[in-house]
Predict the 3D structure of the following.
Amino acid sequence: MEATYKASELAARARQMFNTTPEVVSVALQLGGKDSYTVEEAKQTVKDFLNREVK
């Protein structure tokens, strides 16, 4: 089983892991609706958030 991390833990490493700001990571993961994420899940969730269409 892969390790999971809270959104706050992932946001704290936003620049290193996601090349974006902690605020972006926090919002993306909050909108993802989960309490904790694996690194891969978090990366995909942030990527999807950054690439979503603006209306």
Q: What stands out?
A: The beta strands are 5-6, 36-37.
